[in-house]
Design brief:
The protein is α/β, with parallel strands linked by helices. 33% of the residues lie in helices and 23% in strands. It is built from ten helices and nine strands.
């Protein structure tokens, strides 16, 4: 790959909760590395997905959704997203096609807040076009075209994998020339421990309701591979903020925790390519969402 013709750069995926950033990242990679659930604010911290083609390498950064924050946890999540406005080569601002620019005006102002940030090309990806009447698509694109100096506007459906080739073509066009930073076969720089913890957390989002998923943190305590037995033995702790939540996570007769473990184990086995023995424990850590020291262990130190 000649440096003069090859492109490589970092691209931040920015947008409000539930706009489909994680689904888009997984779709562009062709495999799952970022967790997805119907609930907003599922993504808590940045995760890098690396898309390598014959002509470019795009290091895509999935970020927490932009939302109004109250706890230290939520403030840290938003700060991670906002911090990505600078220090990247391009931004993909992802929005739900069912929303008008007026709904997102506050966040678009932040994206275009300074002259320095305006120098970073911002691509608008209008997602979930499979959920709207196609007759409304062109007028909606025109509204967004007037809302900010976007480098381009691309309608996509991350779930249906529609429009992704065009989006990648537009991303490549704004990346700087330079050699690839990662080997072509690496889809992410995230550790296996991180991905395992995220997969368990995703299943908690899917298995529980209301505030429970948002007041849980997941940590891998031990990760041992047994090549003789042909399996990995993984011990995971699920932290909750209150004693009552522990019972909800565990469920009647341990049924909910068992279901979470079964669903997570399947994804983890696919990730690792080996059999997995997954052991889950639930512990109470009161007020952890406002505990800066505890959040720091998850790369989410509050300010």
């Amino acid at each position: 790959m000649a440096e003069k013709s090859y492109r490589c750069g970092t691209v931040a995926l920015i947008g409000p909760p539930n706009s489909g950033k994680s689904t888009l990242l997984n779709a562009l990679l062709g495999q799952k590395i970022s967790i997805v659930s119907p609930k907003p604010q599922t993504t808590r911290t940045r995760i890098h997905g690396i898309v390598t083609t014959s002509s470019c390498q795009a290091i895509l950064v999935d970020t927490p959704g932009l939302h109004r924050a109250t706890s230290q946890l939520n403030r840290a999540m938003v700060r991670q997203a906002v911090d990505m406005f600078c220090g990247v080569d391009a931004i993909v601002f992802l929005v739900d096609a069912r929303h008008s620019p007026a709904v997102l005006a506050e966040w678009m102002k932040k994206v275009f807040a300074s002259q320095e940030r305006k120098k970073i090309p911002v691509l608008l990806a209008l997602n979930k076009i499979d959920l709207i009447n196609r007759d409304t698509l062109l007028p909606l694109l025109n509204q967004y075209r007037q809302a900010g100096p976007f480098a381009c506007l691309v309608p996509v459906s991350a779930l249906k994998k529609d429009g992704l080739d065009l989006l990648m073509k537009e991303i490549e066009a704004v990346l700087p020339f330079g050699p690839a930073l990662f080997p072509p076969h690496i889809p992410t720089d995230a550790t296996e421990r991180f991905l395992v913890a995220e997969m368990v957390r995703e299943k908690i989002f899917l298995a529980t309701g209301q505030e429970i998923p948002y007041e849980t943190a997941v940590q891998v305590e031990s990760f041992q591979e047994d090549p003789v037995a042909g399996k990995a033995v993984i011990h995971v702790v699920i932290y909750v903020a209150r004693p009552s939540q522990k019972g909800i996570i565990i469920g009647k007769g341990g049924g909910r925790l068992k279901a979470v473990g079964t669903m997570a184990r399947r994804d983890i086995e696919e990730l690792l390519g080996t059999k997995v023995m997954l052991k889950l424990w639930v512990k109470v850590k009161k007020g952890w969402t406002d505990d800066a020291r505890f959040l720091g262990e998850f790369g989410l130190a509050g300010k």
